[in-house]
Amino acid sequence: PLFREGRDSVTLSPAPKQLSKYDIPLYRRSDGSYILHRVVDVSDGKYTMCGDNQFRLEKGIDHDRVIAVVSGFSRGKKRYSTKSAAYRIYVALWCGSRPLRYFAHRVIRKLKRIFGK
Asked: How crowded is residue 88: how many other Cβ atoms within 10 Å of its Cβ?
């Protein structure tokens, strides 16, 4: 995943009126937990979210649950913007490879079941 606990920090900005695909909002689930996941689809005014290291989609997130959006992040002393070309290339490759990563994950799980850990 892009962000690692204890290593990275994010810069949050006020959420725009409408999120776009690949934005990373901070939102609150109905159980009260705060989540930072990527928008993978926008449809009928609702968002589909998925963590970068997850495969299960969280569908039907309303905009009123969104608190803020990631505008940048820091890794050590280096700062990155979500508007930079390098970041946008990373996002396109990472999100585009999701089906392949899911397939590889399933194959590896099956092989571990067959041959043990």
From this structure: 13
Q: Model pTM?
A: 0.79
Residue with structure tokens 């159980």? 31
Alpha carbon 107 to its chain centroid, in Å, reads 23
What distance in Å separates the CA atoms of residue 12 and residue 99, rounded to the nearest whole number? 29
| CA end-to-end distance (rounded Å), the chain | 23
H or E stretch at 61: strand 58-62
Residues in the chain: 117
pLDDT by residue for the chain (117 residues), tens only, comes to 588 778 899 999 999 999 999 999 999 999 999 999 999 999 998 999 998 878 889 999 999 999 999 999 998 889 999 999 988 898 888 877 777 877 887 898 888 888 876
H-only helix segments in the chain: 85-96, 98-115
* 30 φ, ψ (degrees, to nearest 5): -65, -20
